[in-house]
């Protein structure tokens, strides 16, 4: 049995963190790992895995305890999700989309110290969403990308929510929308407008839950990507979709404040890739020791070239774990400039090193490791996807880091 990626004693985890990590690891190693090949080869959604997550209460990992959830904060969730990513990257990545809908509306928003009136209204609205998850096992997605600069935070979302009596009418689309056709609700970020021809504004961003069976919602296009095939991230289209007032996930205008004051909220894609990085290393060790299930027990560990390669991988893995753990430990409202830059650096490191470790694993293990019947081939393809994911792609992280190292807030060269 694999030990935790971050063992309690070595990384000073709390009892709750260890418990949730073990729960996730046991699901991953005993169930998810055995189904991962099927979901990948068919590009099908991990329905059975989500039934297991619901059965163990993990759909409510970030739902406050008073509503029946585990009440995990961002760090605790991310440690547990990395254990899932270790065994099935697609499940971990889609799980993030669901959990973010809970995390953003609970721990994160509670940390913003909103006006009392807004807090009371938000409490009333979120209780309904949590009830659906805890009592009904409902799954929430979080379609984000639109093919433009909105997901990166540079402009308003192109999906609009027109205010009408008792709710909103939504028009627009989201691309790479994970869980398309499988989530019960889509947590849609959109620009609130009062007139059809009004230009959307980022400060008026709404976060609304759209039922998957609402009239005007459609899932379009094929899904046959290189990696993360089980996410089923097809295009989600909204055509005059009416959503009632009760479907608010955040009070109007709060999302831009949350994005500015809680930047670590955009790191929640990384646990899947932290798990993948560990999985690439795990496979290499088992392969060289002759312990890969289904293969002849041939040992290859005695060769110096293999030992040097494993040492290189171990150094890279430990560096990745260290900066990531430090960054998620610093997650809070209003972090310092250095803490934000460390978050960028951690995001970049995890997304790039997961792929680098997978490459080294293939090179070290040799030709047989490229066979689709073995997990490493899938791990490699999944690992390549992380650096491309908005809002913090690898390129954007470098851009932000370079700028923030050289400029203080408000500075320019004019």
How are the secondary structure elements laid out?
Elements: H1 8-11, H2 15-42, H3 47-55, H4 74-85, H5 89-110, H6 116-136, E1 140-141, E2 160-164, E3 167-177, E4 185-193, E5 205-211, E6 217-220, E7 234-244, E8 248-250, H7 254-261, H8 270-288, H9 304-329, H10 337-365, H11 375-383, H12 394-406
Parallel strand pairs: 1-4, 2-4
Antiparallel strand pairs: 2-3, 3-7, 4-5, 5-8, 6-7
Low-confidence stretches: none
Computed Rg: 21 Å
- Structural shape: globular
Tally of separate helices: 12
Distance between the termini: 60 Å
Question: What is the number of strand segments?
Answer: 8
Helix content: 40-55%
- Along the chain, the helix and strand elements come as HHHHHHEEEEEEEEHHHHHH
Structural class: alpha+beta
Mean pLDDT: 95
Strand portion, in percent?
Answer: 5-15%
The major pleated sheet works out as: 8 strands, mixed
């Amino acid at each position: 049995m694999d030990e935790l990626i971050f063992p309690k004693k070595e990384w000073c985890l709390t009892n709750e963190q260890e418990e949730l990590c073990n729960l996730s690891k046991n699901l991953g190693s005993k169930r998810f790992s055995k189904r991962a090949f099927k979901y990948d080869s068919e590009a099908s959604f991990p329905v059975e895995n989500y039934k297991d997550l619901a059965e163990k209460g993990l759909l409510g990992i970030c739902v406050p305890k008073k509503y029946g959830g585990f009440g995990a904060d961002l760090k605790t969730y991310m440690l547990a999700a990395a254990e899932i990513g270790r065994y099935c990257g697609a499940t971990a990545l889609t799980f993030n989309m669901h959990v973010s809908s809970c995390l953003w509306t609970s721990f994160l928003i509670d940390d913003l110290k909103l006006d009392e009136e807004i807090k009371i209204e938000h409490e009333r609205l979120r209780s309904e969403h949590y009830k659906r998850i805890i009592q009904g096992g409902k799954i929430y997605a979080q379609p984000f990308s639109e093919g433009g600069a909105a997901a990166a935070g540079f402009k308003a979302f192109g999906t609009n929510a027109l205010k009408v009596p008792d709710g909103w009418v939504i028009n627009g689309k989201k691309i790479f929308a994970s869980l398309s056709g499988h989530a019960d609700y889509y947590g849609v970020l959109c620009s609130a407008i009062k007139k059809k021809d009004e230009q959307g504004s980022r400060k008026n961003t709404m976060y609304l839950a759209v039922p998957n069976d609402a009239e005007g919602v459609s899932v379009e296009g094929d899904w046959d990507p290189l990696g993360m095939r089980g996410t089923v991230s097809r295009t989600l289209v909204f055509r005059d979709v009416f959503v009632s007032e009760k479907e608010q996930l955040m009070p109007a205008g709060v999302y831009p404040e949350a994005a500015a004051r809680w930047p670590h909220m955009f790191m929640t894609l990384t646990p899947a890739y932290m798990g993948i990085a560990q999985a690439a290393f795990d496979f290499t060790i088992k392969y060289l020791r002759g312990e890969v299930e289904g293969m002849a027990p041939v040992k290859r560990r005695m060769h110096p070239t293999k030992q040097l390669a494993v040492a290189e991988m171990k150094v890279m893995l430990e560096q990745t774990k260290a900066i990531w753990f430090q960054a998620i430990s610093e997650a809070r409202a209003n972090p310092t400039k250095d803490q934000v830059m460390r978050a960028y650096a951690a995001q970049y490191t995890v997304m790039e090193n997961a792929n680098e470790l997978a490459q080294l694993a293939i090179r070290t293990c040799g030709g047989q490791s490229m066979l689709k019947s073995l997990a490493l081939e899938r791990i490699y393809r999944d690992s390549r996807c992380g650096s491309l994911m908005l809002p913090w792609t690898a390129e954007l992280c470098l851009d932000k880091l370079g700028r923030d190292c050289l400029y203080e807030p408000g500075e320019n060269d004019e």
